[in-house]
Design a protein that fits this description.
Layout: H1 8-18, H2 29-36, H3 40-53, E1 56-59, E2 63-66, H4 71-95, H5 98-116, H6 123-136, H7 141-157, E3 158-160, H8 166-182, H9 185-200, E4 203-206, E5 215-217, E6 219-220, E7 228-229
């Protein structure tokens, strides 16, 4: 494999998320440089970036290793998601362009059609594309970066089970786009918060320490302090 030096970080991150590098495994500069066809300098820079993002840790006598997030750290990600995605939608209602709206509406139409036909294979990727576009429409580079990193980490830590009625999920997304198109920031925020809360039940924590990557549920609960409870997750 040979990739541009500036893409090394993305390539390593993608391989971590997809499971090419197992949690806790060592990441040596020499082997990574050989794999991606670059010098050790961009690899070293990439590892520093990935450490700041929480994908990599540096261990004494071992060097850079893939991080091993705890159950609580994973649950915290879903809480952060339920805070940031509504903020992004509110910003999108204020700053979106016609190009953003065109893409969002097209994705909703495509998602609704495939959901009605029972063609669920592509719905997950379409949903990811929808939320990526909604984040881009916020016009906030810092928020876009946070949401992008959040999606990567959630994809790494969680498997996603499709809703029993995916048509409902896409109807929710359609309502969000309508609010964004009208410039109604508060409604876009509220609808996105509801959508995020409902979809949290779809996430099942990956347990790479168990045979066959069995999963355990992370149950969303309402309380004055926390949006996610991990009581159902075995430690």
């Amino acid at each position: 494999m040979r990739i541009p030096a500036h893409s090394v970080c993305t390539a390593i991150r993608d391989d971590i998320v997809s499971g090419v590098y197992e949690r806790g495994s060592r990441l040596t500069e020499e082997l990574l440089a050989r794999r991606y066809g670059v010098s050790r300098v961009p690899v070293r820079e990439a590892l520093r970036t990935l450490e700041s993002e929480g994908f990599v840790v540096t261990r004494r006598h071992a060097g850079a290793c893939v991080a091993e997030p705890t159950v609580q750290e994973a649950a915290d990600l879903l809480e952060v998601r339920m805070l940031l995605e509504p903020l992004g939608a509110a910003r999108a209602a204020q700053r979106r362009t016609e190009a953003h709206l065109k893409v969002l509406r097209g994705l909703v139409r495509l998602g609704q059609e495939r959901a009605r036909r029972g063609e669920g294979e592509d719905l997950r990727s379409l949903g990811g594309w929808f939320h990526e576009t909604l984040a881009q429409a916020s016009g906030s580079p810092g928020l876009i970066a946070l949401l992008t990193q959040l999606r990567h980490k959630i994809a790494w830590m969680y498997a996603v089970e499709q809703r029993a009625r995916p048509v409902d999920s896409w109807a929710e997304r359609g309502a969000i786009v309508d609010a964004v198109a009208r410039g109604d920031a508060e409604r876009a925020r509220a609808l996105t918060a509801q959508h995020a809360e409902r979809s949290t039940a779809e996430y099942r924590l990956r347990r790479p320490d168990l045979p066959g990557r069995r999963t355990a549920p992370v149950r969303p609960v309402r309380s004055s302090q926390h949006g996610v409870n991990t009581a159902g997750v075995r430690h």
